[in-house]
Write a structure and sequence with these properties.
Number of strands: 4
Structural class: mainly alpha
CATH superfamily of the largest domain: Hypothetical protein af1432
Number of helices: 14
Bound molecules: fe (ii) ion
Order of helices and strands: EEEHEHHHHHHHHHHHHH
CATH topology of the largest domain: Hypothetical protein af1432
Largest sheet: 2 strands, antiparallel
Distance between the termini: 45 Å
CATH class of the largest domain: Mainly Alpha
Radius of gyration: 20 Å
CATH architecture of the largest domain: Orthogonal Bundle
């Protein structure tokens, strides 16, 4: 039997699992909780205390696991005794697990399906709770020496959440919100195709890059789009958004130096930029907003920049 790792952070106590959960010991894999049971709070506490981050399920149970995550999220969101931090914990855990899959297995239908499920649950939970977006943003990386991969997973979840909330704030159509949620998770999928020092470009200021590095970096939207281009399960809207996520209205973006953007393209470009500055380049929110006022005028529609600022303020980011 093949096993699939799942994150402990996606498990919620007192909710029936529906699939067996296993734990990896040095020399064997042991049954940890049976599927007709739920996980008791002290067992989750114990795992967290022991810094066990992953458990395992049978490959065949993946669909049941996705369903369970959905149930946990919905249950947690409607439960007033669950704090906003705990809610954000669950949402981020589920989102980052999906982002991890996307980066590890970008071509598969399963990763794309997981992105769609995650985007749908983000839309539902963000719509139910005004403070959640801030909770997601404030959710610290698990440790300070987080790997580049972990930072990119967080960037994906943040960008997707921001896109969803900002698109709702602008009253974009429901379809657009869904495409933006998926595209937010996938937009930098090309990170998975970069090797060694090229990967570091995702954490570097564009202005500080050598010419050859910049040329390489500018290929990432196209490489990302190409991953999904020949897949019948991927939507054309999502592919188009990935391709255009680094474009600006001024023609200063890349790779195609577009000078018009659809509202959806503009939302993704702004949200991905905002979170790159914060999560990948470690800038403060104040500095990023100042940069928006000083350097992004012309890159985006002025009224969109204004709306983005009031959106960020309203969300308490
Ligand atoms: Fe990007
Ligand atoms: Fe990005």
């Amino acid at each position: 039997m093949g096993y699939l790792p799942i994150r402990v952070s996606t498990l919620k106590s007192d909710i029936q699992l529906g699939f067996d959960v296993y734990i990896q010991l040095p020399h064997k894999v042991l049954m940890y909780v049976r599927g007709d049971d739920d996980i008791e709070p002290h067992r989750i506490g114990y795992l967290k205390e022991k810094k066990v981050r992953k458990l395992y399920i049978a490959d065949a149970d993946e669909g049941m696991y996705q369903e369970y995550i959905d149930r946990c999220l919905n249950e947690a969101m409607s439960d007033d005794s669950v704090s906003i931090d705990e809610k954000a914990d669950l949402v981020v855990g589920a989102g980052e697990a999906t982002a991890e899959r996307i980066y590890e297995d970008p071509h598969s239908k399963k990763s794309y399906d997981a992105a769609q499920t995650t985007a749908a649950s983000l839309i539902s939970v963000l719509g139910q709770n005004d403070e959640l977006l801030k909770g997601i943003f404030d959710h610290a990386l698990e440790d300070e020496n987080a790997s580049d991969e972990a930072i990119m997973q967080k960037h994906s979840v943040n960008t997707s959440s921001l896109c969803i909330s900002f698109a709702e704030f602008l009253s974009l159509p429901k379809d657009s919100v869904e495409f933006l949620g998926v595209a937010g998770l996938f937009h930098d999928v090309a990170f998975s195709q970069f090797e060694g020092t090229d990967k570091k470009l995702f954490f570097k200021e564009i202005g500080d890059m050598e010419v050859s590095d910049l040329t390489r970096y500018k290929e990432h939207p196209k490489i990302g789009g190409e991953i999904l281009q020949d897949k019948e399960f991927a939507s054309a809207e999502v592919i188009g958004l990935i391709l255009a996520h680094e474009e600006k209205r001024s023609g200063n973006g890349f790779p195609n130096k577009l000078n018009t953007l659809t509202p959806e393209q503009e939302v993704l470009s702004i949200c991905a930029l905002y979170d790159r500055e914060i999560t990948c380049l470690k800038k403060t929110r104040d500095d990023v907003l100042e940069d928006f006022s000083m350097n992004q005028i012309g890159n985006y529609d002025l009224s969109i920049i204004k709306k983005f600022k009031s959106f960020v303020k309203k969300a308490g980011l």
